[in-house]
Amino acid sequence: MTYLSLKDVSFSYPNGFQAVQHVNMSFDKGESAAIIGQNGAGKTTTVKMMNGLLKPTEGSVIVDGWDTKDYSTAQISRKVGYVFQNPDDQIFHNDVYSEIEFGPKKLGLSEEVVKANVLKSAEIAGVTDFLKENPYNLPYSMRKFVTIASVLAMDSNVIILDEPTAGQDPGSLEIISNMIKTLNNEGKTVITITHDMEFVANNFERVIVMANCQVIADRNKRDVFWDFDILEKALLKQPHMSKIANALQIGDKIISRAELIKEIKKVQK
Amino acid sequence: MSIISIKNLTYQYPTSEEDVLRDISVEFESGKFYAVIGANGAGKTSLCNAIRGFIPHFYNGELQGDVLIEGRDIREWELGELSTKIGYVFQNPFTQISGVKDTVFDEISFGLENLGVEESEIRSRVADIIQLLEIGHLQEKNPFELSGGQKQRVALASIIVMEPEILVIDEPTSQLDPQSTEAIFSIIELMQKKGKTIILVEHKIELIAEYADYIIVMKDGKAVLQGNADDVLSNEQAIELGCALPQYALFGIEMKENGMDLGTIPLTEKKAISAVQHLLEKRRVTS
């Protein structure tokens, strides 16, 4: 069932700059999707409308039956959590525990529930070892996980991750990958903005492509990564293994190493 | 001759409980492209700080071993002197923007103004860099109104405009889309062609494989593996050290495991494609 939908949504900033034009998309509970596209394509503006940080100038955003125009960001953030692109825009406490605790505390949850939420979120985001640390003593990439945990602790049904893969090492990418699976299994919707095409290829089925303030594709990753017209419009590249398959003209919309190796085996025989 | 020579460098920030750099020895030759890779928290940024003299000049603490820039001890260099020799591009572009300039053009001029360069020369050099980095559409904007990716390009511009001999660049593409990322790499390559020494911290391993000459792998404050890019990036040991191998190398390794040895571990798209073509042709000829 549709939990979150954007209906013919446009957004202009007060200075008149139009960042999003006539965007439609909807998400079911427990679904996961990647949003990809160039810097400045309108990705962040689009997701900021999903949790009411921005209200559409045209069209409507419906979350669990609520039109975001009629509710405050604080109210909507119980249903949709947004993790900022730059962790330093979000962090304002002196220790990691307090940072994570702030959200659920504000929701008025009981002390035990708050504590349980904090510990569980810290575990999922891999920051359990740093709960007593000052977030600013942690490397940038780890601060990102602190902000992710802070949003998870609100236990919202939708989680939006804005470039969680930026500057992450392989180990951290694996934490993010596992986290998305865990949240999906719990019935949560996860929407992820990323520039890492390999991460998209490995972790998502549904891919939404934005270019010039609009959605230009919303379909399975194979159909996106093998549609050269779409890739060119969005200035995106195929995943590495697709590039090899394409150059050799083998297989059917190959994405992964395993698929490519299997196909070469077949061709060799 | 080495332009930078690091010998048995060990260092601890005054506030940290243990050494962040442990017994590191690396030689940097003039005009080469070095990539520093490894897990987050491995000490990559600290190594950059040692090279640009912020360790020990700014952070204090005791530096053991030696860091020599053009043969001269880092402790003897003045920070101001070093800043004309070594340009440093911050990991987080939000940190680098000066905050005292209202337009991107002025922001990029800031360093040259501080060096006392003549105004007409500043104008022409800044205009050249703006053109080179394709940020003409941003030049009248306030640096704080830019997106993360745009800030990252302005941060790079404001350093390379100063024409330092050595460029230390800490994750310059983390906020950038794939196309802008490749654009940054080609600019860095251009800097190398102009004879600059490049020291780059970066996670995007496929691009490193394409551009870097030499790789230094860091883990827990140590330089655990270093060598020519071709050797390091085809070395499975690197995976155990927490760093990624290029997808193309992993593909080559897995092909071998599947009984289809490519005869080489390819590091780049081009090499992978030609290796597979070669394999398929060989099969056709023998069968």
UniProtKB/TrEMBL annotation, chain A:
GO cellular component, one term: ATP-binding cassette (ABC) transporter complex
GO molecular function, one term: ATP binding
Keywords: ATP-binding, Cell membrane, Membrane, Nucleotide-binding, Translocase, Transport
CDD domains found in the cross-reference section: ABC_cobalt_CbiO_domain1
SUPFAM superfamilies: P-loop containing nucleoside triphosphate hydrolases
Record-stated family: Belongs to the ABC transporter superfamily.
Entry protein name: ABC transporter ATP-binding protein
Organism from which the protein derives: Virgibacillus profundi
From TrEMBL, chain B:
Keyword line: ATP-binding, Cell membrane, Membrane, Nucleotide-binding, Translocase, Transport
Matches recorded under InterPro entries: AAA+_ATPase (IPR003593), ABC_transporter-like_ATP-bd (IPR003439), ABC_transporter-like_CS (IPR017871), ABC_transpr_CbiO/EcfA_su (IPR015856), ECF_ABC_transporter_ATP-bd (IPR050095), P-loop_NTPase (IPR027417)
Cell location: Cell membrane
This protein's GO CC annotations: ATP-binding cassette (ABC) transporter complex
The ABC transporter domain, residue ranges: 4-245
Record's bilayer topology term: Peripheral membrane protein
SMART domains associated with the record: AAA
Record-level Gene Ontology MF annotations: ATP binding; ATP hydrolysis activity; ATPase-coupled transmembrane transporter activity; cobalt ion transmembrane transporter activity
Family to which the UniProt record says this protein belongs: Belongs to the ABC transporter superfamily.
Listed PANTHER family: HEAVY METAL TRANSPORTER
Protein name per UniProt: ABC transporter ATP-binding protein
